[in-house]
Amino acid sequence: MKRGSYWLGFILGFLYILDSITQVNASIHEYRKEAFIPQSNAFFFHGGSEGLYASKSIDSSAAGPDDNPSKGKSSIRFENVLFVRTKESSDKQNEMQSKTGLVEAIILEVKDREKIGGAFMKSDVICCTPELSRDGSCNVGEVIIQKDLDNPEGPKRIQTFFEGKNQEAKMMAKSVEINSTGMYYLYFMYCDPQLKGTTISGRTVWRNPGGYLPGKMVPLMTFYGVVSLAYLALGLVWFLRFVQFWKDIIQLHYHITAVIALGMCETALWYFEYANLNATGSRPMGITLWAVTISAVKKTLSRLLLLVVSMGYGVVKPTLGGVTSRVLLLGLIYFIASEALELVEHLGNINDFSGKAKIYLVLPVAFLDAWFILWIFSSLSKTLEKLQMRRSMAKLELYRKFTNSLAVFVLLSIAWIGYELYFNASDPLSELWQISWVIPAFWTLLAFFLLVVICVLWAPSSNPTRYAYPGEAGEDFDEEAISLASGVKVTGATDPVTGLREGLEEDKRE
Fold it and tell me: What is the pTM of this model?
């Protein structure tokens, strides 16, 4: 019964994710009969927040007849925004009155947040009251906005009125040009308590001078383009080595090749996904789904590669033995958790990824990553101990280098996680949006350089026996003799045949 409930919950969660996929378009923020939230003496709805660059001045004389008039412009466009109040609220109004309710759209840069409400009047209210209106600084029933004569581009308001007993009020289609670079917030607000229960529908389209890509994501498009070329270069070098020593290829080399190929596909797909999103304003679902899935597969295979290498697969032992099922199970669980996180993060509205939903999806991935790290270092410890007992000096040196490199990458990861937590805690309003792209970029670069280290240590060569399991060489050989021939000095070695026999017996017992 419990197992049935578990699978039912999983299926419902997956269907929810699929349903969210059909609701999203890049910088297009959709509103579907959303409710307003009470705050102080006002009711508000968060309509979106994005980093926007200032509009670029375009020489009109150089513009062609086919040029888009919005080219080089940064703006927020309101499309089909509709406010619907309750019937009880509309019935209380006078049918002859032209204005019986007011809803305001407030656009403000984050640095101007103190100009909204009565903070500058030493009051915690948001809407103007009769007492505050006596000095003429605000109008009753409107949101208080402090005007700055030195900054006419400060908070902007767009007013929409209900008429008579009408339940609906449609906002006029309007495009607000942005002439100052910053993080912008959009709020819909009303002050009249009689409008309680009002809902909002429609959408707003946010555009940067270079396209629809949000400001904090613009550098990522270039970044993924560069990294895809780096993966291509790595793949080319690896392929040449692969072909040159194809007779000496071991099973591990095929796993490394798969990870390189997935890395190339992943970064190239993200680049094309961002490029299309920037050009059209909507996500190409086919490319996005492929990018998300390949990204999850690549992350999973990368971690499994580190794990099986740490266990000595193909080097100390020919198979993983009884732990194979556990390794595959961990990989499957990690893929599902990573796929769910990627789907919601990349197919959800860009700024509408709620904190609680993110925690619920991030925590399983973080827990599984920690599990991978513990298992990897535990396996490395056992592998190093086994190699030391067998006095396999060439392999021991190889694994020491791998362990040291991995330790450096783990320390870098821990340090970066600390920085990321500090960054997010010190920037709750995304004021540092122009450099926030380095957070996801770091993890992509870290994975790439770790893959480079593995490629260097396990590169195909004419002497694969320095890291291959003896059985893969086609015959039982004297590993120590090869180590000596490779320039690695071995002292105090015992009979190599006896050592090899003892090693094989240990593997059988495992």
Answer: 0.76
